[in-house]
Amino acid sequence: MKKLTEILGIEVPIIQGGMIWCSGWELASAVSNAGGLGTIGAGSMYPEILKEQIRKCKAATDKPFAVNLPLIYPDVDKHIQTILEEEVPVVITSAGNPKLHAQTFRLAGRKVLHVVSSAKFAKKAEDAGCDAVIAEGFEAGGHNGREETTTLCLIPQVVDAVSIPVIAAGGIADGRSMMAAMVLGAEGVQMGSRFVATHESSAHPAFKDAVIHAGEGDTMLTLKELTPVRLLNNHFADQVRLAYQSNATIDQLQTLLGRGRAKKGMFEGDLIEGELEIGQVASRLGNLMTAAQVVNGTIEEWKKCQALVGTWKI
User: Is 98 helix (H, G, I), strand (E, B) or coil?
Assistant: First the structure.
């Protein structure tokens, strides 16, 4: 079986998560130029905006990059057409059944990765023809699995269930966590929160500042009745807690969430009423970096961990 890096045509097995409102062409091209796989997050883009972002990314890098495509997106067919026409080499599907579209991309010569939260869905992705799966533990930010399976438990379960490469996601932000994931059987890692807190991220500076100053326990997984999401604590998160204490109905929760809260928080910088999606690992970030510093620093620390493991004795 080919290694993940050979399948994707990248130098190091680090994939940048396609976070909505945070993953434009600047970040994607910077990660790809550093040797990883940069990703444009299509979930927050209209079709014409996605086309513009792809073209700018292609102008900024000659390395492979990906588009993250949430399959519940209302204009998914238009996005698929754009991805095919613009010859995007890698597609990362999420939030839906990849069986409907994986073969379309494969027949066009594109590589397809799918985000899963369980071994059961990983097997379905393999059966659908995906080249690899991204197994995301519930530590991750943004929309999440309902099972609340942690990365430490999820990765070996998925590795044992499929024969295609497994990429670990959720709670990974440096070489130590990358090493741990690969010991569990992953061939690579996806990092989201760490790349939110970079200079090239399209997130609002106020949101980036809130992320790097987050403390232990400052996020919560909530709104499972709608779509599970991990949020940074703020006034809106407090409103959600109060709604649950009042036994709010699904319709009331949907009304509270409304439309555009994620854009308001992460892209426009409203730290009070905005929806601030970020992972538990935010409490470990501490500072802004360039995307290249994240990639290079992670690989450097990972290599040190490899050398350290070789000296362990029981």
Answer: helix
Q: H helices then E strands: how many in the chain? A: 14, 11
The rounded distance, in Å, linking the Cα atoms of 197 and 176 is: 18
Sheet bearing 142-143, strands edge to edge: 142-143, 229-232, 219-222
- Asked whether residue 314 carries a pLDDT value surpassing 80, the answer given is no
Report the distance separating Cα 33 and Cα 119, nearest Å. 32
- 247: helix, strand or coil: coil
Taking only the tens place, the pLDDT of each residue in 245-262 is: 999 999 999 999 988 899
Total residue count of the chain as it appears in this document = 314
Domains, the chain: 4-202+282-309 (3.20.20.70), 214-281 (no CATH)
DSSP string, 228-239: -EEEE-SHHHHH
156 SS3 class: helix
d(C-alpha 111, C-alpha 100), whole Å: 15
Is it the case that residue 311 has pLDDT exceeding 80?
no
